[in-house]
Amino acid sequence: MPTFTALQRLVVSVAILASFVTFLDGTVVTVALPAISRELGGGIATQQWVVDAYLITLSALILLAGSVSDAYGRITVMRIGLIAFGLASVAVAAAPDPLVLIIARAAQGAAGALLVPSSLALITTTMRGEVQSRAIGVWTAFTTGAQLVGPLMGGLFVDLLSWRFVFLINVLPIAVNLILLAKVQLPQHPRTIRVDWFSGVICALGLGALVFALIEQERMGWSSPAIWIPGAVGILLLAVFLLRQRGSDAALMPLALFRVRNFGWGNLATLFVYAALSLNGFVIGVYLQQGPGLSATAAGLASLPITILMILLSSRAGAWAGRRGPRLFMTVGPLLMAAGALLLLTVGSDFTYWWQVLPAMVVLGLGLSLTVAPLTAAILGAIDEHRSGIASAVNNAVSRVAGLLVVALLSTIVGGTLDLDGFHSAAWVTATLFAVGGVVSWIGIRRNPAAETAADSVPS
């Protein structure tokens, strides 16, 4: 297994901490929503927008952030993002009413958009080949673990302290990362890339309007002008955005990237796999509280086996994929997760976690551990390191949009109510999405020539 140099270890640590705060905050809030609603009021609308305000700005601005990262340097952009995220977190924790809370959550998402592309770009800039695959595996284990352990941490803080402390979890890791970031000495990135700010605004407004329509249509209906007008405007703006990308020499989402086989097919696999992950995570966390009546902490603990397996296996899976190629892992992993989702069909009215949920969590954890690091390495390893920031941003935008869309369609998927029948319907849809992701990977993914060369050059 390849070893890291001192600089590479520092880079991996910085990248993990930077992404950790973003991914953790995207999930830790879920179990805090009832407590927020009780204290600040606003009912289910407040709960929805506390989650969605963060996800909309994160997904809408991440493409622009990737281009900014390439143009102005990863370290500079990451430092700005960390400071802004910390300030927004404090504002959320101190929010006196729902409006301030939602605005601060949107600011958190915008700051988080600066962190993810620049953190992965630091790895892809300083490492290639098998070392890069292992680094991405380590990064994946901890950042995905943050997403999975988030509900548990949130539940503990809500049950033992206050929902406000949930949003202060990130302050300490942000401070530590700013100190570590000052020690990273890399050559200054040449500022020769022009940032298309106008396209960034179009993309953000278009995606925001479309997601607004998808989320609110359940309450207002598609016939309402407050729904179909934003939906139509969103689609129009996104179409204009794509047209601008075709002829722009400073494209935020260079469409030529998708002609690179692993990048194009890998992002298609990402769309299905992350839609399934988002649907599964949301449904598990909510149903276990509303159905069997578990506490917030117990509902968070339900997914702990996935976190443990991710931490234990993701680094190894990344290294294995670096030597053997990502195709097999990106196929077997999602198919295993599809089997894990089907195991959730055993959940019944006579609920028992150990026999009905735990086996599914173990299988899901094994599949996820085999999938995520090879998937990320295949996509980013296919792109030149000078465009790694925008490549990372595109891939992260695809995963965030996948989650947004599937959660926005949740009512349709579960048949209007997340009861036991709705839970089973969600399990079928989740399994289907995972399976499609595995098939797409088998059809489209091949070994990156650069990674193959690097692996062949490693002495046995």
From TrEMBL:
Organism domain of life: Bacteria
SUPFAM superfamilies attached to this UniProt entry: MFS general substrate transporter (SSF103473)
Membrane topology: Multi-pass membrane protein
UniProt keyword annotation of Cell cycle present: no
Residue ranges of domain Major facilitator superfamily (MFS) profile in the record: 11-449
InterPro entries, per database record: MFS, MFS_dom, MFS_trans_sf
Main location class: membrane
The entry's keywords: Membrane, Transmembrane, Transmembrane helix
Subcellular location per the Swiss-Prot or TrEMBL entry: Cell membrane
TM spans (from-to): 12-36, 48-65, 77-96, 102-123, 135-157, 163-183, 195-215, 227-244, 265-288, 294-315, 327-347, 353-380, 401-420, 426-445
CDD domains hit by this protein: MFS_MMR_MDR_like
Full protein name: MFS transporter
Originating organism: Microbacterium suwonense
Lineage: Bacteria, Bacillati, Actinomycetota, Actinomycetes, Micrococcales
